[in-house]
Hints:
Elements: H1 7-99, H2 104-122, E1 138-145, E2 154-161, E3 166-172, H3 173-183
Antiparallel strand pairs: 1-2, 2-3
Helix pairs in contact: 1-2
Amino acid sequence: MTAQMTPDRLAEIRERLASTLKPQKTEISELLDEIDALHDDVNGTCLARWEEEQENEQLRLSIAGLHARITELEAAQATTIAERDAQIIAWLEKKAREEGSSNKDRRNRADVLFRMADKLSRGAVRPPLSRGPDPLVVNRFDVAMEPAPEEEQVLTVGCIDENGNPVALLLDMEARSKVARWLAPELNDTGRATTT
């Protein structure tokens, strides 16, 4: 038996439906808000990840470019060192030939120069600039050769380093003056004693 649908009964049904659906509508609304927030978070995370990937790709390209530049510079440095070594070898051999063999001292100086040139040409020794950050330590001086007046004024000092390798110190006039001032501060720039 069904109850008669009266305006009071209809109002009661509506009230009960409203009270039953209201919490569900609130819960559904809250869930939809949470879904929107999660969606925004996911989109933000994806965007941030994409931006990171773009930045990483740029860094990878920069690193590849730097590696290529390093290879290029190393090749240029090797060429420069080879050219410099060839010039030093030629100069040492020229100086050794100029020493001649007229007496024992000249033969000894020529021999030291030829040995320096030979070791440098075989790569057994490296000139100081290609040795890296370690300083070249010289502990024995064997010979000093003055240039001829018509040549470039470079004093050649034949030395032996701490490993027993021959080394040629090439001192131009400015370097000679500095060394002279360090060794004998009482001398002036011409290498003569100052008068007071």
